[in-house]
Amino acid sequence: MKPTTRPRRTTRAASLLGTAALVLAGCGTADESSGSAGGALTLGFVNGANTHFHQCLLKSVEQTAKAEKATVFSANSKQDAATELSNIEDMIARNVDALIVQTVNVDALEGDIAKAKSAGIPIFLTSVATSDLSDVLGVAKVDLKKVGALDAGWIAKDAAGKDVKVGIVAGAPGAASDLLVGGFEAALPATAEVVANQPGMFNPAKAQDVAENMIQAQPDLDYAFVANEEMAFAVRKAFDAAGAKDVKIVTANGTEDGIAAVESGQLSATVANSAMAIGETAVKNTIGLLDKEQGVDKIANIPLVLVTKDNVSDAPQYCPK
């Protein structure tokens, strides 16, 4: 998609601005950030869920857009691909200048991109991307396979060649979780056996249930890989209650609480991938690519940091204030 085929508008219908706080049909709320009401660039942000990551991502998108004097309409797909497509359609109806999408499922992106292309609206992706980016404005990409691989590498180093048993508490099937788990499993040493792999659905209560069953079935578990820190805390609680305090947990996000838990030893390692950095990059690069600014790459890779007790000070800020 060529963003220049659709010139930026300089006016906005009063009815559009008046509906900024209304509920989008079937998909949650649409919020308008601060911005000039006349010629402001309008961005439609379609978020994927309500986890701490997604909340921080939304805050980052809104704050960065405000600083860039752009207006944001947001909607939440609540981990449902059909709702995501409906959100895309609603943003198209609002005639936004560009879409920013945190997808619930990589497979859903094909329909999203096709809808945006047919409407002549550029689409920018966050966290994950399709293999074919020809119809995409750009992407702020987190190498989720590498995230999983970094955690697996820590286990390999810590296990030091010993035979070990590993459990996996995944997220929701599709998109981020599949990439995370795939990268993790592929990078595990031959001496590490995955003895359990169940989805926690990015829900701490569900993850705790999964962990309780896992440790009961595998009482000699050595390590657990958990797809995000919110679930990791619930898994830690379940393991500790079962007397399995020696099971070492590795995870991902890099939140303030997660870093503190690594420092205290509650978690062994986490891979920091800042939601704030993703949101900032998405908004700034969307605007830069629309304006054909020099030096703005179509694919921007978000920095990753494996955080352990030895380098907690290296963790980037995760969430905007």
UniProtKB/TrEMBL annotation:
Gene3D superfamilies: 3.40.50.2300. GO terms for cellular component: cell envelope. Residues 1-25 form the signal peptide. InterPro entries: Peripla_BP_I, SBP_2_dom. Keywords: Signal. Pfam families: Peripla_BP_4. GO terms for molecular function: carbohydrate binding. Residues 47-293 form the Periplasmic binding protein domain. It comes from the Bacteria. The keyword Ligase does not apply. Its main location: other. SUPFAM superfamilies: Periplasmic binding protein-like I. The keyword Signal applies. It is found in: Cell envelope. Belongs to the bacterial solute-binding protein 2 family. This is Sugar ABC transporter substrate-binding protein.
